[in-house]
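[Meeting: bench + compute handoff]

Bench side (C.D.) handed over the final construct sequence. Compute side (W.E.) agreed to return the predicted structure before the next meeting so the bench team could plan truncations. Sequence as handed over:
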Amino acid sequence: MDCKPNHLVHFAIMGGVYARCIMDVDAPRIGLLSNGEEESKGNELTRETNVILKQAPLNYVGYVEGRDIFSGVVDVVVCDGFVGNVVLKLSEGLAEAVGKMLKEEILKSFLPKVGFLLARPAFQNFMKKVDYAEYGGAPLLGIDGVGMICHGGSNTKAIKNAIRFAHEYAQRAERRCRQLGMGEAHDTGKDPRYRLGSSRHGADKL
């Protein structure tokens, strides 16, 4: 299903609540993924969404580019599911490619091998950070409960970590945090465009 502006606004609200309640980020910075930071950039969907988010009760910082995703410029990056999946798979492939290229360079001669042995803990920590299996999956937001979305090719390690993360997620009282957070956003944004839920609130008119 193609996203409409109100869908992206809802994603921004849910992402902000998750960042506050689960990641303990105060006033999370929210950015809308586009092909440039200028107001004229983007497509019809991002431009319409940008206008709405500027008026929403969120710490919205505007457009962000693909290079900003890992820079820490924002805490939440908003995009539709198609673009998000492409970004996710690209990031995964890039991490694997970097690891492979480093290994090839290290094995070329003696000195790089010695250097690798000295820096081995750093390399291991780096690979652990970029290995999707270390995280297992991502939570499905907007449901009444805890649901994890895992990679289609997940191995045993990934599934184990997904179960662990789901347990930790539940332990942090995700349901209560989400309900409180959504309530804050709902109460602050009196405009029906910011409300989560069915189209009877008027969100379908966006």
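W.E. noted at the follow-up: The helical segments are 5-21, 44-55, 81-106, 110-130, 156-171, 174-188. C.D. will use this when planning the next construct.
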